[in-house]
């Protein structure tokens, strides 16, 4: 329940961050576009009302009087803050332009290469604009003034010859415009997100309660299933012990007794002795099967001791299995049963199928779970391929572990051994 509500609040916070970020970005784009549009309007107005009428033949010839008139007109606009820098260009051909007039006197008369978009404005009344980084050669005297809005607009002089009017306008107001726009736009989506979060909080809590109850019911079902399975296994093991095992043991004793009353070396005695050996071998297999069917009492011995007994069974080669346990381990009926079954199945696979010469079983506990590993040095297998037909023990146990809220991972490679790692909640 607590974890579900924490995730709900986290995702609402993430949504709020996305909204704020989106509003800031949209406000920046809107403010930038408005700044460029205002700069284009200003540049077009100055070009049509001031530059075009004053750009006569005397201006092209750099006559002092004509240059003075242009200086006075444009400097007046610069003084009122509407313009920062100005250039008037003539078409020099092949993508180049010559500066006819500039507020930066050293630039007058120089020729520079223009971009394709800028050069295309010659002979038109189009406008192109951008927030310039002032890195072009023509901006060598304007660098260090921060970012400026750069506008190129086409016009014609008094005689109809094409001109290019370039103007730079300060972008210092842009951050303030963004902040103002954010202040106007942002409260509405924030209020919407907060309102939606508060409105859906009861629903989220209700769903979390339902999920919590569902998990508790599933865990109760797993407990009942495990207990029912253990009860049935105990009944089967008891029936085998009291019935078949006792009968076979009795037959074995009778065969041994009959064999001793027969002459040594006789065919019938050899036959009875051989039959007795088969019975004893089958009895040992039945007793091992009974141990597999009904594991030790985990509630009495504990998981660690039961795993140690499993690793030192008589039918396993001495020294094959090594057990490392970081004790103490907290006890939980469902967790202990599932962990023991998973370890037993992994050990059985390592012995019967992997041809392992060494098996390591490790167990330890975290704050909220029991972790175990079964590592062997056997032949391994390719996990991407389906297992042999009939070998589905680990798959069933993996499903049971998943239903209990845990994880079971199998890592293996051909010739590289196998690692089975499980984690079960306490």
> What is the CATH architecture assignment of the largest domain?
2-Layer Sandwich
Structural class: alpha+beta
**What strand line-up does the widest sheet have?**
3-2-1-6-5-4
CATH superfamily of the largest domain: PAS domain
Unreliable sequence segments: none
Largest pleated sheet: 6 strands, antiparallel
- Summed up, the domain count is 3
Average pLDDT metric: 82
How far do the termini sit from each other? 17 Å
Helix content: 55-70%
Rg over C-alpha atoms, rounded to the nearest angstrom: 45 Å
Can you identify the CATH class of the largest domain?
Alpha Beta
Determine the number of helices (DSSP H or I, runs of at least 4 residues): 11
Membrane topology: Multi-pass membrane protein
Pfam families: HATPase_c (PF02518), HisKA_3 (PF07730)
Subcellular location: Cell membrane
Keywords: Cell membrane, Kinase, Membrane, Transferase, Transmembrane, Transmembrane helix, Two-component regulatory system
């Amino acid at each position: 329940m607590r974890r579900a509500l924490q995730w709900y609040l986290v995702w609402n916070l993430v949504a709020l961050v996305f909204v704020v970020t989106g509003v800031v970005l949209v406000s920046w784009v809107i403010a930038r576009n408005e700044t460029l549009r205002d700069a284009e309007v200003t540049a077009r107005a100055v070009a049509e009302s001031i530059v075009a009428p004053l750009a006569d033949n005397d201006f092209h010839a750099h006559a002092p009087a004509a240059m003075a008139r242009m200086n006075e007109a444009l400097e007046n606009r610069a003084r009122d803050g509407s313009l920062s820098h100005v250039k008037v260009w003539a078409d020099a051909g092949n993508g180049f332009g010559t500066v006819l007039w500039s507020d930066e006197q050293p630039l007058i008369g120089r020729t520079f290469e223009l971009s394709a978009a800028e050069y295309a404005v010659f002979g038109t009344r189009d406008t192109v604009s951008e927030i310039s980084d002032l890195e072009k050669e023509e901006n060598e005297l304007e660098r260090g003034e921060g970012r400026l809005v750069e506008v190129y607009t086409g016009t014609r002089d008094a005689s109809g010859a094409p001109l290019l009017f370039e103007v730079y306008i300060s972008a210092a107001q842009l951050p303030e415009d963004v902040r103002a726009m954010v202040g106007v736009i942002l409260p509405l989506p924030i209020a919407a997100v907060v309102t939606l979060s508060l409105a859906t909080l009861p629903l989220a809590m209700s769903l979390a309660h339902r999920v919590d109850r569902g998990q508790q019911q599933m865990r109760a079902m797993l407990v009942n299933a495990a207990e029912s399975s253990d009860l049935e296994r105990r009944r089967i093991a008891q029936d085998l012990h009291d019935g078949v095992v006792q009968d076979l043991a009795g037959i074995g004793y009778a065969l041994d007794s009959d064999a001793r009353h027969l002459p040594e070396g006789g065919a019938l005695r050899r036959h009875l002795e051989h039959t007795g050996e088969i019975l004893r071998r089958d009895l040992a297999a039945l007793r091992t099967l009974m141990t597999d069917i009904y594991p030790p009492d985990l509630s009495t011995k504990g998981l660690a001791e039961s795993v140690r007994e499993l690793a030192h069974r008589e039918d396993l080669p001495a020294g094959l299995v090594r057990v490392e346990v970081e004790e103490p381990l907290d006890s939980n009926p469902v967790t202990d049963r599932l962990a023991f079954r998973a370890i037993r199945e992994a050990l059985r696979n390592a012995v019967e199928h992997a041809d392992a010469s060494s098996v390591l079983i490790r167990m330890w506990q975290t704050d909220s779970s029991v972790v175990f590993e079964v590592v062997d040095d056997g032949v391994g297998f390719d996990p991407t391929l389906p297992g042999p037909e009939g070998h589905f023990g680990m798959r069933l146990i993996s499903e049971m572990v998943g239903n209990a809220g845990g994880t079971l991972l199998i890592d293996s490679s051909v010739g590289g051994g196998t690692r089975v790692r499980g984690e079960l909640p306490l």
